[in-house]
Amino acid sequence: MSSWTPVPCQCCYTSSIQSLVAIQLRYPAKAETKRWLVSKLEGRKKEGGAHLLVHPGEDDDGTLVLLSATPYSLLQATEVLGLAKPSSDGSMVTFSYNNKADFPNSEKPEAFLTLAERQLLVKYATDSAKVLQETPVPGYPERRLYPGQPIVQSLQKWGIIEKFYPLHVEEEMHLLTEAWYSQIHKIRQPIDAIRSYFGDSVGLYFSFLGFFTISLVPMAILGVLYHYLSLSFPDKYLLFAIFSVLWSTMTMEFWKRHCATKAYAWGTLQLKSHFEEPRAGYWGPPALNPITGRQEPYYPSWKRKLRIMLVSIPIIFVFLGLAFDGMTMYLYWERWIQVSYQQHHGSSRLAAVCLYLPSCMYTLYIELLNRIYKWVAAVLTEWENHRVESAFQNQLTVKVLVFRFINCFSGLFYITFYMQDLQLLRKRLSSLLIVSQVINQVNECLLPFLLQKFQLRPGTAHHENSKDAPVVDSFVSEGDLPAYPGLFDDYMELFVQFGYASLFSCVYPLTAALLVVNNITEIWTDSFKLCRLFQKPFPCPAANIGVWQVAFEVLGIFAVGTNCFIITISPEVKELCLDFGMTPEQSLLYAIGLEHILITLKIVMAFAIPDQPHWLRLKVLQMEYHSWEALKQSAIKRALPVS
Amino acid sequence: MSSWTPVPCQCCYTSSIQSLVAIQLRYPAKAETKRWLVSKLEGRKKEGGAHLLVHPGEDDDGTLVLLSATPYSLLQATEVLGLAKPSSDGSMVTFSYNNKADFPNSEKPEAFLTLAERQLLVKYATDSAKVLQETPVPGYPERRLYPGQPIVQSLQKWGIIEKFYPLHVEEEMHLLTEAWYSQIHKIRQPIDAIRSYFGDSVGLYFSFLGFFTISLVPMAILGVLYHYLSLSFPDKYLLFAIFSVLWSTMTMEFWKRHCATKAYAWGTLQLKSHFEEPRAGYWGPPALNPITGRQEPYYPSWKRKLRIMLVSIPIIFVFLGLAFDGMTMYLYWERWIQVSYQQHHGSSRLAAVCLYLPSCMYTLYIELLNRIYKWVAAVLTEWENHRVESAFQNQLTVKVLVFRFINCFSGLFYITFYMQDLQLLRKRLSSLLIVSQVINQVNECLLPFLLQKFQLRPGTAHHENSKDAPVVDSFVSEGDLPAYPGLFDDYMELFVQFGYASLFSCVYPLTAALLVVNNITEIWTDSFKLCRLFQKPFPCPAANIGVWQVAFEVLGIFAVGTNCFIITISPEVKELCLDFGMTPEQSLLYAIGLEHILITLKIVMAFAIPDQPHWLRLKVLQMEYHSWEALKQSAIKRALPVS
């Protein structure tokens, strides 16, 4: 469905070429701008062009440009990006164009490269289109491009290009969703197919979601047993706490192994982000990159560190302070209102409404602060001027993550450590688990679905009476969908879940069971969101889940302290200690001892479980050995001066 | 002095060839054995020979064989071992024979390679001499060599070769010791010259010794101030404890950087132990190494792990138990004797002598246990069958280290945590610091020196009436010295010092000052030991101090807990807590809080201080990039099947 339409066309492309990526100019598009853009995207690399196959899509508005690539440029870009592909003996080898005969299928890019890879490579080529001399943008004389400035990103920034998105392939998506939904109740997903269609990062997300859900099952079974058999021996907290601490380590360690296996099979395990091309927003005076020797902007890392230390971190702390102040103010106000309501015996209706006021105000405050903070974090991270996209994303993720962590968990920590009220903690946890998850799913999925159903979007207005060919029409309507917001919120949800399970599940053993049920529907809603409610996102090569791995592991360390503390304050254990004639000081010492033992155990486990399965470790060492040998045999490249 | 003697010789070597390594056969040596050995060592690589220059040293006994190498074989071995050397632009590049023109001085091995490197390369070539067919050893028909069996190691095992040692070069050593001793009081050492003469591992040891001593200076100054100004504000423990915790992290983090810089300059930073040749003792059915593709013995790692888990670790625990039992029995006996002595009012002299009995018996017991354990650890590690020498050494070090750690510190921990007697701890520490260090130095240096001075060694007997040429004579007498025992005990001493400084110096602030004084003499005794009292050790390539880095870091983590505990039980802090009206439970909670903060701080510092300086990081990335590029350009090597 998404191949070139067989209508006769001025470019004389054969009808078998599949459009991979679409660019949509702002309506009304000027003919000279479009002509110039097409010529640049078709142009030769030497002249700053992208060397792509470009088709001025025959839509009514004349705003659409469809992109594809020749097998030659796809394979060239595969080498430049350093993707590994199965060689003829089955092991994954970093692709090089010279050795292409060693890679089965390399003459047929559609079999050799997945859809996601081809779209990534086209995006990479598009991003690399630059002007060589200072030029005004045809049709927009006030906009000037300077030598080396990326064309497509600049036109996007100026709003001349409105949308830039990869295209769906209906048949492939149909097969994918069928395979996905048919086994969803067994938490089985066609991960490799998802990755082929949406790229590595999306593939890893769904793989992690499934892995995490399955890892919750033993805890869920244990929790249900605890709950329904009403087991109440005095050390039940102790057992569940130790279980959840070890569970968090095991889950993350085995995930690392699973993830490395996936990354190897997908050819991204050996990707070196240091050798990546700089991201579009990276600026600085042009200089030779000391590592790769390529000409690119240069911004010294000490300046970046200074910006992070002196500006970003203080600003983050201001926001954390604001969040904390909000919480304490809310708690104060809430208590004050409760007390005065009781004093006045709740006479009027107005007073009853007032009871909900602090809670509502606080929710509003947090929501507002969240939005402002997210914007500030994005601006700060952009201003920190990170060289590669992955560093940018990691820094942004860490910023938002810390803030959300405080927002999500500070209340629970306050109840645990300061108020020491396990009854309240249990109540709060159960309401959070049920209410917030329902709200989340409605917010994430039902709302956008309804909005789309009833065509309330302003974006679709001027296409309503479209007379385009059906295929072009579907390309345009894909562009009308909102851009995919990224995986941050999805991971954040799992992060919060992981926190509930590892930090507090000994207080409320049903946690894991509720999370398993939630996650099965989560797979469904997330996949629906991805396939139907948003533009197809550009694929992103990834070998792991990035900072999220660290974030989950840090949460696992927090779990030790929290669980040990919960044990000491639990009434059952307190009673037990009194029975044995222990002073509070002694029981505290035992808790510290337990904490130290558990942390040591966690560290030992993390070391004892290798991060890669043995066979994979051998494969990696083989690759290292070959590159070491190759280096010795190759002519020495002059090292560049280190600045 | 150590070049070939100018007496006419059947091999017709020019007199400028320097002998690097000596082999001494057991006296009386059989002529046919010696002739065969020389032919094998001279023989071509293809025929299993070592391709060395061999000189049957003209000593009276006819037991000596002197080894040297041609420039060609030295450079070939440099490539095989993967040493990096300065290329013409000054950066360190892994040497390859094909590109030798890019390495300045590579045509003059004596300038290009250090003495230690040349001796290492000769040893490597010697170790690689093998027989191709099953052969009896000439002169020893009962000894048969099998195909692939290393000749020199086997003859050593059977006692046919008595000694195998690298030779000193008098002039070079003279220059080295002059430079060493002239600045010793300023803790300045000619580290690069030490490394050129003795190899990387010895160079790194002395570099670490100096680095550690300098890092102790600030703590020593603070400690002396505390001691002599009798500062006694209530939180002095607190300040000193925090200082020593942060000090331990800073020291090890900055050492890592320093060490990486050294390793880069010495060309060992990129050495990959995985690609090393297996050690001589490694056995197993011959197979292809899955990484390098070379034929070598193969022993699956799961079997090794099983042996470690099921045999080595339980045995270690038995010994740890014996050590612990010894300590408790000693403490029990000591108390019992004290009490009964006081009850009988110490009437007889015999009773007074009995007072010292437990202490003496305990010392004897520990000494005996130590020796047995060391032997058991060596046997176990050999039996675990590690593939490379570095893994073998690391495993052996860890085994002995854990045992010694328990022996050295369990008493102090017992006094701290169980008896909670800071007064006794202080007394014990000061006596340990002064007495044990004096004993150590006498034991390590004075004793061997006196033994040597008065020629009490049996080994020198049959050379007394030697009529050898003076040079050959000196070669023989070098062989008469005992073999260098390795760096384990030297590192162990520093490890114990590091423990005293980081764990307990808040109790006895003079610790650091005493250690500084001790270490300055330690540099002197260690260097004297190395240069004069023992055979020159074979050099060993090293990029870091191996497991010792980890051991010091683990001690740093122990330091947090111990220091926090000492603070809570110190009378001054206890009083302070009472003044503020805190319950013991609350003050304990504060101590836990402090511990958690300090550990977090340590982790943050360890992350914030990069392990390599920025310029070095860039150099390493350049190298990685080049090898990545080289890999892509090289023809694909068939990967071997992974077993």
Side-by-side strand order of the widest sheet of chain A:
2-3-1-8
Calculate Rg of chain A over CA atoms: 28 Å
Secondary-structure-based class of chain A equals alpha+beta
Low-confidence stretches of chain A: 1-15, 456-466, 637-643
Shape assignment of chain A: globular
Distance between the termini of chain A: 53 Å
User: Helical proportion of chain A?
Assistant: 55-70%
Query: In oligomeric terms, what are we looking at?
Result: homodimer
Show the largest interface. Answer: A-B, 52 and 51 residues
- DSSP strand (E) fraction of chain A? 5-15%
Largest sheet of chain A at a glance?
Answer: 4 strands, antiparallel
- Count of domain modules of chain A: 3
Q: Count the beta strands of chain A.
A: 10
What number is the mean pLDDT of chain A?
A: 85
SSE order of chain A: EHEEHEEHHEEHEHHHHEEHHHHHHHHHHH
Q: Number of helical segments of chain A?
A: 20
Domain Anoctamin transmembrane (chains A, B): 194-620
Family (chains A, B): Belongs to the anoctamin family.
Transmembrane segments (chains A, B): 204-225, 237-255, 308-333, 345-365, 401-419, 498-521, 542-568, 588-609
GO molecular function (chains A, B): chloride channel activity
